[in-house]
Automatic annotation (TrEMBL):
<dbReference type="InterPro" id="IPR011991">
    <property type="entry name" value="ArsR-like_HTH"/>
</dbReference>
<dbReference type="InterPro" id="IPR036390">
    <property type="entry name" value="WH_DNA-bd_sf"/>
</dbReference>
<dbReference type="Pfam" id="PF12840">
    <property type="entry name" value="HTH_20"/>
</dbReference>
<feature type="domain" description="HTH arsR-type">
    <location>
        <begin position="15"/>
        <end position="93"/>
    </location>
</feature>
<protein>
    <submittedName>
        <fullName>ArsR family transcriptional regulator</fullName>
    </submittedName>
</protein>
<dbReference type="InterPro" id="IPR001845">
    <property type="entry name" value="HTH_ArsR_DNA-bd_dom"/>
</dbReference>
<dbReference type="InterPro" id="IPR036388">
    <property type="entry name" value="WH-like_DNA-bd_sf"/>
</dbReference>
<dbReference type="GO" id="GO:0003700">
    <property type="term" value="F:DNA-binding transcription factor activity"/>
</dbReference>
Length: 109
């Protein structure tokens, strides 16, 4: 995980912005930020979306480094995958975008 005080690279910035470009994913981040870590079934109930759809959104958020997950066993032996929001901060200015753009992976066109 990257230090929140370090600006993201161009590739990471694109992944973060793509992950945040969906109302469900914004609601997921909001729920985890306000309610703390949670497991998929409870989070799906809280947000009113299906577990499979929630899982897809969580994968995208986790790939972008915006949430983390940890598999734990409950007291009755059931495996629960807990998710929580990762600390991050985005400052979007023309200068920060220019700095991130300079580190983008080149496209082989």
């Amino acid at each position: 995980m990257t230090d929140i005080n370090t600006p993201p690279t161009g590739d990471r910035l694109l992944a973060m912005l793509a992950a945040l470009d969906n109302p469900h994913r914004l609601r997921i981040i909001a729920a985890l930020a306000s309610g703390g870590r949670n497991y998929i079934s409870q989070l799906a109930r809280d947000l009113g979306i299906s577990r499979p759809l929630l899982h897809l959104h969580l994968q995208k958020l986790e790939h972008a480094g915006l949430v983390t997950s940890q598999l734990e066993l409950s007291h009755d032996g059931k495996a629960l995958n807990y998710f929580e929001a990762s600390p991050f901060e985005l400052l979007l200015t023309p200068a920060s975008i220019a700095a991130a753009a300079s580190s983008l992976t080149p496209n082989p066109d």
